[in-house]
Batch of 2 targets.
Target 1
Amino acid sequence: MTPHNKKIPRMSIERLPIYYRTLCNLADNGYLRIKSAQLGKIIQIEPTTIRRDFSYFGDLGKSGYGYDIAHLIQIFGEILEVNETQGLALIGVGNLGRALLINNFRRNPNLEIVSAYDADPHVIGETINEVTIQSLNELKEDSQTQAIKGVISTVPSHAFQEVVDYLVACGITSILSFAPEPVHVPKNVHVRYLDLTSEVQNLLLLSDIAEV
Amino acid sequence: MTPHNKKIPRMSIERLPIYYRTLCNLADNGYLRIKSAQLGKIIQIEPTTIRRDFSYFGDLGKSGYGYDIAHLIQIFGEILEVNETQGLALIGVGNLGRALLINNFRRNPNLEIVSAYDADPHVIGETINEVTIQSLNELKEDSQTQAIKGVISTVPSHAFQEVVDYLVACGITSILSFAPEPVHVPKNVHVRYLDLTSEVQNLLLLSDIAEV
DNA sequence: CCATTTTTGTTAATTAAATCACATTTATAG
DNA sequence: CTATAAATGTGATTTAATTAACAAAAATGG
Ligand SMILES: NC(=O)c1ccc[n+]([C@@H]2O[C@H](COP(=O)([O-])OP(=O)(O)OC[C@H]3O[C@@H](n4cnc5c(N)ncnc54)[C@H](O)[C@@H]3O)[C@@H](O)[C@H]2O)c1
Ligand SMILES: NC(=O)c1ccc[n+]([C@@H]2O[C@H](COP(=O)([O-])OP(=O)(O)OC[C@H]3O[C@@H](n4cnc5c(N)ncnc54)[C@H](O)[C@@H]3O)[C@@H](O)[C@H]2O)c1
């Protein structure tokens, strides 16, 4: 059997980071192999969903044996490009941005906030975790001299569209926002939202609507 | 036509908070009515999806007119229970938890972190934004004297299962975690994850796999 | 008041995701 | 080496979500 050539479903890709992280944890704990049923127990995904997901990335398992954890990590790590540093820029170093910068993806060696920007003159010039906060208009030049693969924005909603317009002008195409303000961008630019309020509201809602 | 009696799809419920927020913004800006097509433009959802979603909650629109914004806000607000304060507890007041507590859902008058807990004696006793940080084992009593509708956890992954076990013992059934550690809970307990690393990895991935 | 336009709500069609079910492969034990 | 057990990978099926298409309803403009 050869690897699929069908288009890989969006949801299978979305689950890759979870697979990757879980497999790394297992490897760290000395495990060498895993069966879809065991993995499913850990991350609460049906084994059959796991097997189908994996099948999109090649013939990764062995019948009667399971999957070699190191091999899965190798394959998934390649897709996630964990062997090259993915430089990120942080826009808005308020309370939330500061927390992200202090942590700076400690657990993910290949993700790194390499530069940070703010509009507040009181904040500009301050150094946190070896990153010196700059004025946002320095980003254009920075993005030419260093690889910035994406941006995390923790600016307030009211500033977000304006910031995004500037980022787009700088050639940034991947933006993750903590402000839920919907923005308009060219279709080659991707904006994802991490919407805390919606998450909390849904959490409370789905508990109310007592489970199936 | 009468309201549906079919089961409301998960995804329609998931979108409610976004509808609600957007409609409130429109109302704040003086708008009185909205058409599914306009709303779709703003939040990037197909008008037909919006109309179908709305239809689950009653006969809310008028042909040739659109939807009355105040009416939608009323209906959706009721479902989201925005008129009763939803008390939340915060567990883990490190850098991230602190940012959440300082903000404390400023923009959402009905969501409120009413108590905060940590394990670190240096942190316990400190007051942030009128909330005094307590030892986690105070939560059991607190949850009996004040309504805690849900918990936000910003404790490190390695502590999360232990914290969750305690929360479950206290009768908490809704938990939002910033640590991606998968935990086991009874099936009446809901855990949602806000997984920053996965979001970033997917953001970069989906940009690589150049858009459809 | 009537004709035209707009826009909803929903049935039908489509697309996407998850799951079932099982033939096939490999491991293992005797 | 063979028989048995275990687990994968994938067609077939089911379930869920989205989108298309359009009849019916309401508004608007003579
Ligand atoms: N903190 C939370 O609990 C929380 C929760 C949910 C969502 N959010 C979202 O994240 C945003 C940030 O939260 P926060 O608590 O860090 O707020 P904050 O006010 O502490 O920080 C915002 C930062 O953005 C900077 N900024 C403003 N306009 C800018 C611009 N045009 N360019 C560059 N920087 C600019 C400000 O100077 C400030 O440092 C919030 O507005 C909200 O939309 C925060
Ligand atoms: N900060 C980030 O950028 C970031 C990004 C992604 C995910 N996260 C997740 O959020 C978690 C918290 O992030 P942070 O930056 O605030 O870390 P942090 O270390 O600053 O804060 C963690 C807090 O949890 C407390 N704690 C530890 N064990 C506890 C227990 N058993 N009971 C109660 N409190 C306990 C600690 O005392 C500390 O105050 C991280 O471990 C990570 O899993 C953080």
Target 2
Amino acid sequence: MAKMKPPRSRLLEAVHESARDLHRVGWIDARRLRTFDALCALEVPSLSAAQIKRLRGKLHVSQAVLAAVLNTSVSTVQKWEIGEKRPGGTAMKLLHLIERKGLDAVL
Amino acid sequence: MAKMKPPRSRLLEAVHESARDLHRVGWIDARRLRTFDALCALEVPSLSAAQIKRLRGKLHVSQAVLAAVLNTSVSTVQKWEIGEKRPGGTAMKLLHLIERKGLDAVL
DNA sequence: AGAAATATATTACCGAGTGATATAGTTGTC
DNA sequence: GACAACTATATCACTCGGTAATATATTTCT
């Protein structure tokens, strides 16, 4: 079993390992294995404060609404946009999801 | 301006307020306003430790994979399942999303 | 049985998340 | 213009979630 890709990150490394195992065990076939390749899209780019603010602007939603959608507090969204705090892993994931698929994707 | 609903939560309250405003301003029509009613589905049920563990089991993914999908650490997923830590707002949102729509919804 | 990989636990630290509140800035209404 | 209502910005203080690193089962393959 050869490593198929240079490790983008430790997390994605784990993904490929597990995917390989699942395929070997039979949980997933070759076709579905490609689905896991789509997992490479998991790379979350880590949006900057300004990018978050612009994203919300494009969505035409208030900070309160965005906070509600993300199930977090307005205060938190605030600090993200100011740059006082950086979104955590799961928060970045959601923001990235919305950026790519739109708000509806997370409703 | 009358409050239209008993406050389910402060966040959802904010959603309805803003939605009403958007509608008044003309950003969204009556049809799309109902989309915001779908936002009531934002109510995130707060999964228990056992529920998270069972959810991952149903998905047939390892903790490493789930952690990668959620863009968080394995250690964190661990503590969720043990019950040592409770997932934050954004994490709960993602878990709830997966529970309803499946893994693909967050890829 | 032994090696390799995964899952479970433990420890310790930092900073994200949160609430509360106060202060501008905006927009609409009279 | 003045006033009201809402949104955004900012500050403070706290705590608890997120994270790394490590160690220890538990499983699985050779």
